[in-house]
User: What shape does this take?
Amino acid sequence: MVRTLIGAVVLVAGLHAQERPVPSDSEQVSLPGCAKGRNFVVAEGPEHEPKQVVIAPGRRFRLAGSKEALDGIKRREGQLIEVTGLVRKAALSPGGISIAGGRIRLGGAVPRQPMNDPARDPAYNQPVIDVSSWRLLDGSACK
Assistant: This one.
């Protein structure tokens, strides 16, 4: 009885220790999308999936994380997946300067049509998502 109780306590403590605390300058997000290599493009998730944060489809992230997670994602290229990980809060917020308590933002306009490939633009800053887990969504193919 005592051994069983001690074993259960050790097991629960071990599972709790695997969860990493979220730093104050980051946020844990789950994003649906498609991966190609180390790049991840946010896509519209299935209708029945809950949406955690509002990030526009087409937004690009660079993937970082454990080798096992990145290899698993690489094997699923071309399929709709959901990655869960940490992203800096500054990367999620729109650019510009916030005034009046954040109600007004001053900054450049959002371009209507891209003038060239964003990956080749030196001013394009691709945020990083530190992947902790991923899962396949409905086996759908990416567009």
